[in-house]
Amino acid sequence: MTVVNAQSIDEALHALAELPEPRLVAGGTDMMVEVNFGRHKPGDVVSLRQVRELRSWHRNDDGSIFIGSGLPYKVMEEGELAMMFPALAQAARTVGSPQIRAAGTLGGNLGTCSPAGDGLPVLAALDAEVHLRSLSGERRVPFSQFMTGVKKNVARSDELITGVTIPMTVGFQGYAKVGVRNAMVIAIASACFVHDESSNSVRLALGAVAPTIVRCTEAETYLDGVLAKATPITSHELDRFKELAASAARPITDHRSTADYRRHAVTILAKRFAERAFNVV
Q1: DSSP E strand stretches across 108-216
Q2: 8: domain range?
Q3: Alpha carbon of 31 to those of 20, 38, 62, 108, 163: distances in Å?
Q4: The domain that contains 192 carries what CATH number?
Q5: d(CA 167, CA 144)
Q6: Are the C-beta atoms of residues 21 and 44 closer than 8 Å to each other?
Q7: What CATH number has the domain bearing residue 42?
Q8: CB 145 within 8 A of CB 120
Q9: 101, part of any domain
């Protein structure tokens, strides 16, 4: 077993190219669960914990925000990032325990690509782009094209997820998930809602109710039309919005929940977010 404690992105990329089947590890919070349950046998490891370039964020020239893939969730919970992206902060606070949030990263969520990953619906609703780098160059992939299935994505074996770029929006943002208890729980269903005041449009993304993160495009288009009328939202319109949101889900029944309950949870989350965003009584 070879362990490379990379100090830079270039060092990590060279290790990816040279080792036969390397495993990238930042916080290790996903990998160690798999190891402890005997689902994964650790082989060669490339540790990213000491790569400073991945553990920071900055504002781009166009006003968008770049968040490094190694930035711990604890940094997103409060401060300037939390003020700019409240939904991301809310998602970060739901990730495991304080110890997990101190180690776990957004890049880990992207690398694992579980439909229940807390950060992923937020990236979908905020129209984030994922940065991928290899020795041959860098590319940016819209999140809507990044995740291809349960724990599957478009990243090549020689590519490293270096971070995400998120455009700024002004308006309400919210993230919530449903689980079997109030903390340290894997989502049975999750949702992120964004109201972009500049275009007076909404975005709704769902997690844990399909093989990938789902954008509720029909529900979004419907509510955009309601907002365009510039009249108070009615209870009938809210009901229609939540029904369209639920129709976008493709849930399964498993050991944690039933498909029917997951679909019902989506209707509740969608309705509550719309009520909060637009002060519907």
Answers
A1: 129-134, 137-142, 147-149, 152-153, 160-166, 173-178, 189-196, 201-207, 214-215
A2: 1-51
A3: 18, 11, 36, 9, 19
A4: 3.30.390.50
A5: 14
A6: yes
A7: 3.30.43.10
A8: no
A9: no
Q: Would you say how long the chain is, in residues?
A: 281
Q: Which residues contact 206 (CB under 8 A, 6 or more apart)?
A: 121, 189, 190, 191, 213, 214, 215, 216, 245, 248, 249, 266
Q: State mean pLDDT over 36-47.
A: 77
132 half-sphere exposure, CB direction, 13 A CA radius: 18
**The whole model's pTM is what?**
0.94
Q: How many CB atoms lie within 10 A of CB 141?
A: 19
More confident residue, 39 or 225: 225
Across the chain, mean pLDDT equals 94
CA dist 27 and 97 (Å) reads 13
Is 141 domain-assigned? no
When divided into structural domains, the chain yields a total of 2
Residue 245: Cβ-neighbour burial (10 angstroms; 0-12, 13-18, 19+): buried
Looking at residue 37, what is its pLDDT?
67
Residue 176 β-bridge partners:
191
CA atoms of 96 and 99, how far apart (whole Å): 8
| Structural domain includes residue 103 | no
What is the arithmetic mean of pLDDT over 45-57? 94
Strands 189-196 and 201-207, bridge-based pairing: antiparallel
Residue 252 lies in a domain: yes
251 with 262: CB under 8 angstroms?
yes
Which residues are CB-neighbours of 236 under 8 A, at least 6 positions away? none
Residue 99 has a CB neighbour count (10 Å cut-off) of 11
Predicted pLDDT at 245: 98
Radius of gyration of the chain (CA): 19
pLDDT confidence of residue 281: 67
